[in-house]
Amino acid sequence: MNVMIPVRPDGSVEPRFGKAPMVAVAQVDDNGHVTQWQTFEVEWDRLHDEGTEGSHHARIVRFLREHEVVACVATHAGMGMQRTLAAMKVPLLPATLPDARESVEQAMVAACAAVKDEAE
């Protein structure tokens, strides 16, 4: 499964979701561990104010769909983006560590454990 996180060039978590200049898409295995990592320069910081909020959210939605993203990890997303992700049924998980890869793994391992606990 693919998980997206806003990132900085040094590999740390970018605190801006909808205004992130760069994001990573991590391929994660069934246990929540990152198996592949790819970064993309999306320039959402520059593109954010070029058009309406709806058109910007549509841009992000297209990216998520093109990359088959099933969850996002972030420190913050605005209410409009939260509603958009909820409508897509794409969970927004908390980024709690400074390192983006480690934060994805921690969020996904916790989410996988929660799903397994619910199933039991």
UniProtKB/TrEMBL annotation:
Record protein name field: Dinitrogenase iron-molybdenum cofactor biosynthesis domain-containing protein
Source species, domain of life: Bacteria
Residue ranges of domain Dinitrogenase iron-molybdenum cofactor biosynthesis in the record: 10-104
Pfam family, one: Nitro_FeMo-Co
SUPFAM superfamilies: Nitrogenase accessory factor-like
Taxonomic source organism: Cutibacterium avidum ATCC 25577
